[in-house]
Design brief:
Length: 195
Amino acid sequence: MKLSDTDIRRYMAEGRIAIDPVPGEDAIGAMSVDLQLGDSFRVFVPGKVSHVDLAPPGGIKGRDIEALMGHVEVGENEAFYLHPGEFALGITIQRVRLPADVAGRLDGRSSLARLGLMVHATAHTIDPGWDGRITLEFFNCGPLPLAMRPGMRICAISFEALMSPTSKPYAASPTAKYKDQLAPLPSRLASDQSA
């Protein structure tokens, strides 16, 4: 069951869903909450490795991923520029905490998509039990560079109540790769292969 704005306000008032900083009333839509862009990004650094082997037997190495992506901080009143065909990771300002019986769904803004900005390449589900800021997977599929500024409304999160709590809340899992993230983290695919 999707939560309406009334449900979202009630869940937040009860402490079942936490969003920090707390969104203003203007950020709460009919069934979602707008989230803002943070100031931290990860970008691919060309020429660091020859390729990324996504599957065994070669397997991906954690050090290769770290070498692939550089970290960029954008200052106050500055913009991060995403050029056509480029991919980058970003992060929300807000930290989101979900209970074991609520999942989140991340959606890009239609107005930004109409200018060529994809906000999540694949990862739109926020698992029950999540606690942290949300990494965004940006891709510019338009013809012009896009200037993205920290603090701008970048996406919306909606919520679904599960019929029962999951037995595997994300933050409680010892193998959760991205729990408590405060900055955009590069892929941790290598930890899948070592498990």
